[in-house]
Protein 1
Amino acid sequence: MTIPIPAEDPRHVPNRAVIDPSAITENTRALGTLLEEQTALMAVVKADGYGHGMLTAARAAIEGGATWLGVAHPASALALARADLDAQILTWLFEPRTARTVLPEVLSQGVDVSVGSPEMLALVSEAARQAERRARVHLKIDTGMGRNGVLPWQIREMGAAMREDEHIQVAGAWTHLTSADDPDDPATDQQVELYDSACAALADEVGPIPLQHLANSAATLTRPDLHRDLVRTGIAMYGYPPVPTDVPLRPAMTLTSRLALVKEVGEGHSIGYGRIRSTDRRTRLGLVPIGYADGLHRAASDQCHLVVRTDSGDHRAPQVGRISMDQIVIDLGPDSDARAGDQVFVFGDAGGDPNGPAASTAEDWARAAGTISYEVLTSVSGRVSREVR
Ligand SMILES: Cc1ncc(COP(=O)(O)O)c(C=O)c1O
C-alpha cells in the first residue's frame, strides 16, 4: 500500500520507506516472551508509529500480542479508536485549547487518558461530563523526568480530587524513566523508589491502583522487576533495542532509493558542498536522489554505507561528501557495473543474501549524526512514501 502525499505523486519519486509489519509482529512477540502472564504489553505507536505508519504498526503489534496502544496526542488516539482495533488505548499529551475540542470525543471512544497536573485533571473531568461518561485516568508521576506529571508531594491532593470526582475513574499510575538505557545508572532505582512511594500514597487515597506501569523498551529488556502490570515498548518493537540484548529483534523499516546517474571521475575530484571529500583514485560516483529533506541527517555526512543492487549483485558503497537537501553521492568504485535506475538501500534489510553486503543500519546513521535511532526513524519525512511489504 502506498500512501500518497499532496502535490507530488509518489509514483514519480523513487524514495520509499518499506515497512515490514511481520518484523513488528515478531519483535512484539519476542518482547512478550519476557513478560509474566499478568503483565500486558503496550505498543507505543506515537509519532506515526515511530515513522512506520501508526495503523500499520498498531495492527502488527496487536498480532504480536500487544493489548494496549500508546500515543502522545489525543488526535492519534482518536484515529486508532476509529480504526476499531482490538486494544485499549492510552493518550498522554494535550494542552487546554485543543483538548477542549478533542477530549470529549476521545473519552466517548473509550480511550484512557493520562493526567499530569491539576489543570489536566480539570480538563479531563469537564470533557468526561460533556461525554457523559467516566474518564479512565492514568495519573502521571514526575519522578525525575521533569516533563509531564505531578510531583510526589501532590499525590495525596490529586488522589483526593480524583476520588471525589464522579467523572473520574483511576485506571492507573505511571511514570517514565530517564536513564533505563544505561542499566548502571542509579537514576532508575531512585525513580522507582519515588514511584513506589507515590503509588502507596495514591492507593491510600483511592484504593488499589489497577495498573502500574513504568517500563520502556530498555527496562523491559533489562529489568523484569519493573514490568509490573504493563510495559510500554516502542523502539525495540521497531527492531532497534536501546540496550544490548539476546532477544531476536529485526528492523521493520528499509529506506530505499534509485540511482539517478552514474559517472566516472578522475582522482582528486571534489564532491559536494564544502568539498569535504575528494576522490583518491579514478572511480565511478553514483548520485542518489535522497537527502536531508527526506530525513537523512546532514551531520551523518561521509560516514555511512549504502548497498546498490546491480546486475552483478549487491555491492556496498560509501556515502561520500556532504549530504545535500535532495541528494547524496556514493562511491561505487572504479569497476562498478551500477547504472542509473539501480535500486539503492540507505538503511534496513536489502532482502537479498543474508550473508551479502549490508547497508548501514538506522543505528549506524544515528551514531554518525550524534543522535539516536528514534530520531533517524521518525525523521524520514512526509515526502518519502511508506510502502507496506
Ligand atoms: C511515555 C512513554 N512511554 C514509553 C515510550 C517508549 O519508549 P521506548 O521507545 O524507549 O521503548 C515512550 C517513548 O519515548 C514514551 O514517551
Protein 2
Amino acid sequence: MLNESETLKTLTDREIILGVTGGIAVYKAVEVLRLLIKRGCGVSVVMTPHATEFVRPLTFAALSGRNVIVKMFQNPHDMQIDHIALANRADLMCVVPATANILGKFACGIADDFLSTLFLAITCPVVIAPAMNANMYQNPAVQRNLDTLKKLGMEIVEPGEGDLACKIKGKGRLAEPETIVDFIESLLNKNTLLKDYIILISAGPTQEFLDPVRFLSNPSSGKMGYSIAKTARSMGAHVILVSGPTNLEPPQGVEFHGVRTASEMLDTIKKVIASVTHVIMTAAVACYRPKISSAKKIKKENNSMVVEFERNPDILQTLVPQYPDKIWIGFAAETDNLVENARNKMRRKNLNMIVANEVSADHYPFGAETSKVVIIDKDGKEKMLPEMTKDRIALEILKKLPKI
Ligand SMILES: Cc1cc2nc3c(=O)[nH]c(=O)nc-3n(C[C@H](O)[C@H](O)[C@H](O)COP(=O)(O)O)c2cc1C
C-alpha cells in the first residue's frame, strides 16, 4: 500500500465541505478528513451540535487547520464562513456519517441548523454516506428519504453490511473511509480529462477448451481492466470493455463484450476497433490452446494423457501494424527482469506505453486489490509506483493518456 508520504495529490486545489452528523461512526469521519487532506484538498468541516457529543470539534480543527463550524450564529461577523460564502467556494460537499435525521431534513428542505441550511445553499455535487442501526436504515421513512435525495441528484455511498455498533447484524455500517474518498475523487475528476476519448480495454483471462467441460486458463481476475474501465468512464471517456470470464459486474455506462477464448477476443476487438482512439490491453490472454478441442467430453481411459498445444493468435502483434493510428498500451506481468522484459515487449510490439506488473513472492497481483507496477513510456521514461489499489493505478495510467 501507499505510505503516508507517497499519497498522490489527486485533489489538489479542490475545496470540500465535510458535514458531520451525530452517529456512532463520527470517529470514521476523522479518517475521511485525514485522507482528503492527504490527497491535497482544502476541507472545511461543519458539525451538527449532536455530532460534537461523539467527537470534539478540536480534532477536526487540528487536522483541517481551519475552524470547525457548529452553530448557525457562532460567527455572525465572519462573512468568509457564513453558509452562503462557504457554499459558493465548495467544489463538493460530503456528509459523513449521515444520520437518519439529516436525511429527513435534507429530503424535506428543513434548514434549522448550519449544516441543513448550507445544504440548501449548495450548488456543487453532494455525496451522502448514511450510517445507522439496520432497523433504522430499513425503515420505510428513511428509505423514502434516500429515494428522494437520489432523485434530487445527491450521490449516496451505500452503507455496508455486517456487525453494527448496536450489536446487531445488517445493513447500516458506514462505508469504509477509503471507499468514500475514492468515490469523491472519481466524482471530482469526472467528465473532464478524457472527454473525447474512445478507449477499448481488454480484461480478464481467456479459457482455451480441451473439451466442452475442461479448459486451460490463468488466475487473472479482471480487476485491473475493470478498474481502468470504471475510472476511464468516470473521466468522461467512451469505454468498450472486452472481457474474458470474471466474477465482476461490468462497470456502469460501459459498452461490454464478454468472450471466452483468445480467438474470440481478437475477433471481437476487430469488430469494434475502427472507431477507438486508445487500446489498453490488460487481459491475460493464453499464448497456447489445445490443438484439438474435442466436441465431446474426453473419457478417463488411460493413466496419462498427452495434449498438444498450438499458438494462439497474438492480438497486439496482429492488430498494431494494421492500426498504427491508435494509441496502444500493453501490460506485462513478469516474474523476472521486470522492467527489461517489459521494455522488450513494448519494442517488439511497437506499443506507445507499457505497464510492467511485478509478480513475486511479495507481490502477487492476480485477484488482489492492489498491485505494484512501473509505467514505461515509449521515450524511455519510467514511473515506478509503490503498491497501491488497482483503482489508483488506473488513475495514474489514464492521467498519462493526454501526454502521449
Ligand atoms: C450513542 C448514540 C449513537 C447514535 N448513532 C446513530 C447513528 O449511527 N445513526 C443515526 O442516524 N442516529 C444515531 N443516533 C441518533 C442521533 O444522534 C439523533 O437522531 C440525533 O438527533 C441526530 O442529530 P443530527 O442529525 O443533527 O446530528 C445515535 C444516538 C446515540 C445516543
